[in-house]
Each structure stands twice: as C-alpha cells, then as structure tokens.
Amino acid sequence: MILPGVNHLPPNQRSLTLFELLIAIALLSLMVLGFASIDLFSRHQVLTADRRAQVQNEASFVLEHMAKHICQGIGSLNSPGVIRSPAQPQEWIKIRWDRNFNGQPDDDGANDWISYRYRSAQDQIVYYATYPFSGWPGVGEEIISRKITNCSFSYNLTDNFVDVIITGCYDPDGTPFACGTSDNPTVTMRTRIRMPSVSTN
C-alpha cells in the first residue's frame, strides 16, 4: 500500500529538495566568508607588525649610530665639543671627535669634527665622518636612513648631554597611505647621549 506524502524510494535514490540545497549553499558561503575574513585580518596584522618592526629597527640603528660616535666627543668651555648650525639648530649638529682616543684636545689636527644632519625634504639622516671646522656642509657624506620624518637635536652645556628625538615612517612619501596609519606605521624614539670627555668648565 502506497501512502500519500511518504517517500517510498530506496535510500540510495533519495535527493535533496531545492530549499535544502539553497540552505546548504548559504551555510557553505558563510563558512567560506568567515575563513576568508579571518585570513585577511591575520595577514593585515602580520603585515602591519612587520612594517612597524622595520621602522623600529631603522630608528634604533640611527640612534645607536649616533650614540656610538657622539659619546666620543671631546671639548671644554673654551673649546666647545658640540656646535649646532645657526641656521638649523634643531636639525644639524657637529661633534668634535676624539679620533686618536687620548681623552684630551690636541692641536695637531687629530681631533676632527663629525656631524649629523636631518634633511627634512628627503626624510634623510646624513652622517659626515670628516667635517671641516668651518663651513657647512662638510665632506664624506653618508646617508644612514631614508625613513626619518622628523628629527631634533638639543644640547645643554651644563647638562653635558645631547638629546635626540627621531620619528620614522615605513613609507615617508605617504602614498597611498599617510604616515601614522595602520598600513604605514610610524615610530618615535628618543635617547640621551652622555659625553664623558666634554668638560663643562
């Protein structure tokens, strides 16, 4: 006897209705969309973290480079060990360097000048390994970073410290993402460099 509304086909011949098929497709689509969203989010976080780490490494390298050389400055009240450019006091600094490491100013030219300059137009930090006592700029230019969007030097003779603040950006050009966004992160770092061979009196 065949009852109405009852599926009398064998189990291997039964099929899904169109409604059930649509539900299955919708659920599968939601699952794919969820996994895709998680994948995109994870990739974005990893990319942002990697870019921030690159900027931090760049800024750390610049500060370590400065600390290594500036701490070897030498001078006194009558023979200053630190001079800043009158035109750019916050962006350019000269250090009288104890090149022969004898701990005292010499008159034989052994103590040369080195310098660091921030080029704001090019987002560069430039190091001059040999710097004439008079005249700007010097010779022996070496660009140690192209990702610095801000830098300032400050020096107080009574404190005998050089304070350096720098801000680095992953893509200083800011195209297509401006500096400071998650796609183009920035990092600001600061250091205080002591010069034990510079006398304040």
Overall shape: rod-shaped
Give the C-alpha Rg.
32 Å
- How many helical stretches? 1
Averaged pLDDT, please? 81
Instruction: Report the portion of residues in β strands.
Output: 25-35%
Key phrases:
201 residues; alpha+beta; 5-stranded antiparallel sheet; 3-stranded antiparallel sheet; 26% helix
Care to describe what's here?
The chain is α+β, with helices and mostly antiparallel strands and about 200 residues long. The protein is built from one helix and eight strands. It has one helix spanning about 20-70, and strands at about 80-85, 90-95, 115-120, 125-130, 140-145, 150-155, 160-170, 185-195. The chain is rod-shaped and about 95 Å long. The termini are far apart.
Short description:
The chain has 201 residues and is α+β, with helices and mostly antiparallel strands. It has one helix at residues 18-70, and strands at residues 82-84, 92-96, 113-119, 124-131, 139-145, 148-156, 161-169, 186-194. The protein contains one helix and eight strands; from the N terminus they run H-E-E-E-E-E-E-E-E.
Which helices and strands appear, and what pairs or packs with what?
Layout: H1 18-70, E1 82-84, E2 92-96, E3 113-119, E4 124-131, E5 139-145, E6 148-156, E7 161-169, E8 186-194
Antiparallel strand pairs: 1-2, 2-3, 3-4, 4-5, 6-7, 7-8
